[in-house]
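name: query_chain
kind: protein
chains: 1
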Amino acid sequence: MREAVADDVAAMRAEIDDMIASLEAKIDRLNRISKRGAAHAAEGASDIMLNAISGLTDQVSGRMQDTARSASDEVTKFGNQALRRIVSEIDHRPFLTLAIAAGIGFIAGLARPRE
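structure:
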């Protein structure tokens, strides 16, 4: 009877060892799959981040272009208004304009180094 029990115990140990070996193999396989999945997930996350950054860059660029365009329009408008005002003043006061131009020419002539 002892031999039968010992044989049964040995058979159970062998069966348990087989189960442990099978479990270890499955855990190794699961680890390999997880590593591949993690690498794939990292690539996917990288793509998502790149797309998000690209989208933000495009939005910022568009806003900057709009702002630059708006600023350019404002400067152009201001320049046109200033030019119209100068022309208007010249039309209303031609002699004063001539006197100012002559004064500026005289001062420029005085500032020029003599040879």
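note: The first helix runs from residue 2 to 92.
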